[in-house]
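quick q for whoever's on today - can somebody do inverse folding on this one?? i tried earlier but teh output was garbage lol. tokens:
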């Protein structure tokens, strides 16, 4: 049977999308069929895929509600195929919070969905104060100050560990 994978992202500033593009590369290197969609544009029939990967970033403590709704609305079809979910957030820059069972947002995510994805991961995202509107910048600076992160307003730091993304991609191609 032909194996076809859909990767669906919910990304505001592009880091989750960048991670999805890396996963696309890994699938293509393994000569596997893969298609990329934003959660807004995904109108395909899930039965056309035998693997579905969902990635979403955190904003003010929550994943995009569309992702949670998508999972809960399509529970039966998703249970019938291999699925993976990954979260992108800044708390995961800390080694003690960068695993699915130690990241508070992933723990909370499991309480908001029905069913269990086959694989779950969490990646540290990107901090880029220059991109943020005034209010968001002040809020993120405050959160960073509380969690001993950088607060200088021109800080631009990509915390994503790309080796871990590649490794996750390789594990998914073997599902
Ligand atoms: C307005 C805003 C709110 C955020 N809130 C949180 C948060 O509550 N916890 C956290 O760990 N990261 C938070 N982040 C960090 C993002 O999750 C991180 O920058 C991620 O890389 C964004 O991914 P995206 O570009 O795909 O949206 C926030 C970022 C922004 C801009």
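ok took a stab at it. sequence:
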């Amino acid at each position: 049977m032909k194996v076809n994978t859909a990767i669906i992202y919910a990304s505001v500033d592009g880091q989750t999308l960048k991670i999805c593009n890396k996963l696309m590369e890994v699938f293509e290197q393994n000569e596997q069929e893969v298609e990329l969609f934003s959660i807004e544009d995904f109108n395909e029939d899930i039965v056309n895929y035998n693997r579905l990967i969902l990635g979403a970033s955190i904003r003010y403590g929550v994943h995009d509600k569309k992702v949670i709704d998508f999972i809960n609305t399509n529970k039966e079809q998703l249970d019938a195929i291999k699925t993976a979910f990954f979260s992108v957030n800044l708390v995961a820059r800390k080694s003690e919070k960068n695993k699915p069972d130690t990241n508070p947002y992933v723990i909370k995510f499991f309480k908001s969905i029905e069913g269990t994805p086959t694989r779950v991961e969490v990646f540290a995202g990107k901090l880029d104060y220059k991109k943020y509107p005034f209010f968001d910048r002040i809020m993120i600076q405050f959160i960073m100050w509380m969690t001993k992160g950088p607060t200088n307003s021109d800080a631009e730091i990509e915390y994503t560990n790309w080796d871990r993304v590649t490794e996750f991609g390789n594990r998914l191609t073997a599902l």
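fwiw The chain has two domains: 4-125+160-173, 126-159. also The chain has a mean pLDDT of 96. so keep that in mind when u check it
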